[in-house]
Amino acid sequence: MRLLRYASLFPIILVASFEQEPVIIPERVNIVDRLGQDPDFSLLLRLLQRGRLIPTLNRLEDATFFAPTNDAIEQSIRFGGSLSREWVYSEEYWDKPPDNIRHQLRQHLFYHLINYTIPLLPPKFPIQRPLILETLHYPGLPAEEPPPWVPVPGGLLNSAPQRLRVSSYDSFAWVGVDSSGRGGVQVIKEPITASNGVIIPVNGVQAHPLLSEFASILTAEMIETLSTAPHITLFFPIDSAWSTLDSIERQYLHSGYAERDVGRLVAMHSSGSGVNSSGDVGWSDSWNHGSVFTTVEGNQLRISYSVDGSVQVDRSTVIQEDIYASNGVLHVVSSLLTKPETFQINAEKYLLALNATSFVSLLRTANLSHYVDDEHDGQSWTLLAPRDDVIGGSNMNDVVRDLGRVLQYHIIPGKLLPAQLSDGMLLGTELREEGLNGHRQRLHVSVATKDGTVQGDSNGAVGFGDAQVISEPVESANFVIYLISQLLDPPGSAIEKIQSSSRRSTFLAAVFASSMQSTLKTEPSITILVPSNQGFEDLGLITSYLLLPDVDTREALRSVLKHHLVTSVIYKSDIGPGAARVYDTLDGSSVSITDNVVTSSGSWNQTSRLVPLNTLTENGVIHELRGVLLPEKLRITIGDLALAADGNTMITLVKRAGLSGLLNGTLTMKDVEDLDDWKRTHRRYRLSASSSPSSTLPTSIGWTLLCPTEDAFKHVNLTRLLDDQGALRALVLQHIIPTSAARPDLAALYPLSFQDEATYTTLLSPSSLHGDIIFRKTTKTPEGGGKPESIILLGIRGARGTPGETDFARLLNYGRTTTIDLAGMRSGVLQIDRVLEPWVPDWWNAWGRAVTGGLFGGVGIIMFWRIVYFFWRRSGDEATYEPLDGGNDDDEDR
To answer: Which GO terms describe its cellular component (predicted)?
Structure first.
């Protein structure tokens, strides 16, 4: 802006021409005296005193002083002109001035002085071209020593003085006009003659309106350079010339980050060597047809005259000549004097124009500018750039610590237009993760349309990661830029991603319980199949066992978790119908995947539904499973499940009963029949020698143990039970159900079917009419109210006791072994809350009810027939008769 002030505000004094008679005054009254006699010049006189120019004016013998009135000085101060308020009003400023030379004020005042008396022109005197005057102002840099009283040639105009134009129009004289004789400030009073010259009063200041566009892109350093470079000649385009540039190019030049290009632009329009390298300032009166200016950039600008008299600089027309500046001259031209390749806007310049300057600054800081500057070797990119108004916040500290990784996640190789994007795409970015063995990290694309593709406007319809596109993309030959709503965070660790969903809390607990956090974070290129909480719940006691705080269970838990870690990255696009693809897992086994179904290679041959989430991590991807996959080498027995069911007491009783093989999977039916007191137990729980068992045992069997919890044994006299081997063994046999190998209604995770009224034979059933177990389904409303919950009860079939739920045990949990028994079966455990003690009916239940019922029935029968006989005899003993002569009682009455 300083250049414009010099170019437009220095010409503040204009020559006037009036038709008048000479004024004769005494020779002793000089210019200073005349200024002191007129109150309109009090402020000017103060400036002359403070600039120490009174002796200079007194020494001049024949001068013209263009004297601004008080109003002119006030106007310049009020509207931000070249005069400073401190120069006029501040006493403190002049008591301790910033410099003793007072260079700037002296320069202003010397521009008002001409070292000769100009001819007085009549107001109507025809002027074809403005009159050019040479002032006493020799623009230059501040001197180190006080200057002489009268200026000497030198300074920034190659020892030439600054020029000033005067003209006459609208019947007034004007000073500081442009090359066409218009503008300037008006002469408002008649000239005042003094003994050593003439005073021409002027008022008002005027700025140049044509160069606001160019001025707005100049930095303070550029203005300083243009203001101090010696004998410079500038050709600046008018505002309308900038309309030939693309809007993005203009935004870029105004961004404040285009210093290099703006500098080149100024250099293409400026010459510091003058015409034909003569060193003179390129004023228009020195031009000839064919004159050549060599620009700072090295181009040559040739002057030519058209037939119509207009002046051409290359292909541009000179609109206005000779705008005087303190160190040269400025010419206004009609168009930019640039080469076609000047504005090859690269991605960086586009980003600056689009208000993504912070993003560019971060790229420079991270030494990643080669992605957006001209050094891309023909490679095309898709750039995801957050604007300045969305960058920042608390996450910037994390961004700075991992700056390169974050920024590379915003760069995608290739130029992807909206029509090429579809919902669910995973785009490879320039972020190459160590955890992916140097492969590209992926970025998720979302498209919020019905068909998942972009039709036309992508603003708001397309998202990258967690960010939305907030404006139409900008496309160039080698790149496309999407402005996004926030800075993207590269995928974090697998632990962070798993923590983000409450449906995976059991898996996360298992990871921490097995100390496998580091494996999930650092194992390269893995796919994590995360079972849902419901999947772990469906395993029942297996999950409880795996989470026990025990060394053996820890190793088993690690084996299960590693079976869910596939040693390659499987994205959703890799999963589909067709032949199953087999993938290795971290535990050394494998899984096969086809059509969103995962099949384990374990002994169960489990299948589970896959929910492909494409949840990206820094070392792979996460998908969700409906169930849990159990590896082949996992060994969980009935004893393990009983331990998980809080069944320590039951385990002890099984061992004391001589059935330890049940716990480790080696028990056979022959082992049961060979028990020492099997026959005694058999006789004890049969009602009579003629009674037969209610069920027969299957020949090919596994085992299901009904395992009461520790609390369930609080109501059992264990001391008495342990002293009675027969009773102990009967109780244990009552809790063991042999199961058949072929039960198609059984799900893989359930030891038994829990259907209502389902009845199963126990090992006590061959010895007792009351050895079978029956299941009942019911509902129960919680005490505090709420939705009724479904519960499963089981009890001894046919047992009679207290009515209600106390006759039954409640099923708390279940589990199935992963091992195969000697009989080729898998067994299981049912956790229950009550001990099912073998039921032996007492005399009343065994015979009393029947005898009493028979007696009452017999008495009832006898009484019935007695009553029948009584009424029969009575009806037979009564007399009968016939009426005589066919008469009747009615006849007798008559």
So the answer is: extracellular space; fungal-type vacuole membrane
Q: What is the pTM of this model?
A: 0.67
Cα 423 to chain centroid, rounded:
17
The sheet with strand 467-468 has its strands ordered as: 426-432, 440-447, 462-464, 467-468
DSSP state of 501: -
Tokens representing 366 are 């991270």
Secondary structure string (H, E, C) spanning 766-795: HHCCCCCEEEEEEEECCCCCCCCEEEEEEE
CA angle 204, 207, 209 (to 5 degrees): 140
Judged by DSSP in three states, 398 sits in: helix
Q: How far apart are CA 314 and CA 331, in angstroms?
A: 14
Interior/surface letters 480-503, b for 16+ CB within 10 angstroms, e for the rest: bbbbbebbbbbbebbbebbeebee
Residue 841 has pLDDT above 70, yes or no: no
- Altogether, the residues listed in the chain come to a count of 894
DSSP 635: -
For residues 215 and 222, the answer to whether their CB atoms sit within 8 Å is no
Query: Which residues pair with residue 624 across a beta bridge?
Result: 530, 611
Pairing of the two strands 270-271 and 292-294: unpaired
With H, G, I as helix, E, B as strand and everything else as coil, classify residue 168. strand
Measured distance CA(44)–CA(259) in Å, rounded: 40
Beta strand 113-114 with 462-464 is unpaired
Burial class (CB in 10 A: 0-12, 13-18, 19+), 613: middle
DSSP per position, 807-870 = GSEEEEEEEE-SS--TTS---EEEEESS--------HIIIIIHHHHHHHHHHHHHHHHHHHHHH
Cα 297 to Cα 220, 256, 292, 294, 339: the distances in Å are: 20, 21, 14, 8, 11
Residue 787: Cβ-neighbour burial (10 angstroms; 0-12, 13-18, 19+): exposed
Kindly list the distances between the CA atom of residue 290 and the CA atoms of 267, 301, 304, 311, 823, in Å, as whole numbers in the listed order: 21, 9, 6, 11, 112
The predicted pLDDT at position 108 comes to: 79
Dist CA 157 CA 326 (whole Å): 8
**94 burial type by CB count under 10 A (0-12 exposed, 13-18 middle, 19+ buried):** middle
Q: What is the pLDDT of residue 542?
A: 93
Strand spans (E) along 404-520: 411-413, 426-432, 440-447, 462-464, 467-468, 474-475, 479-484
Cα–Cα nearest to 389, from 478, 312, 456, 484: 484
Burial of 363 (0-12, 13-18, 19+ CB in 10 A): buried
Residue percentage of the chain with pLDDT more than 90: 27
Residue 644 DSSP SS3: helix
* 711 has a pLDDT exceeding 80: yes
* Phi, psi (rounded to 5 degrees) for 790: -85, 135
Contacting residues for 140 by C-beta, under 8 A, at least 6 apart: 154, 155, 156
pLDDT of 273 above 70:
no
Residue 200 belongs to what H/E stretch?
strand 197-203
Nearest to 556 by CA among 493, 605, 602, 619: 602
Average pLDDT value over all residues in the chain = 79
Six token digits for residue 530: 């995360």
Q: Is the torsion defined by CA of 862, 864, 870, 872 positive or negative?
A: negative
Residue ranges of domains in the chain, CATH in brackets = 2-203 (2.30.180.10), 212-333 (2.30.180.10), 347-484 (2.30.180.10), 494-625 (2.30.180.10), 638-844 (2.30.180.10)
Nearest to 219 by CA among 254, 267, 245: 254
H-state helical runs in 240-321: 247-253, 259-268
The token duo for 810 is 């409640």
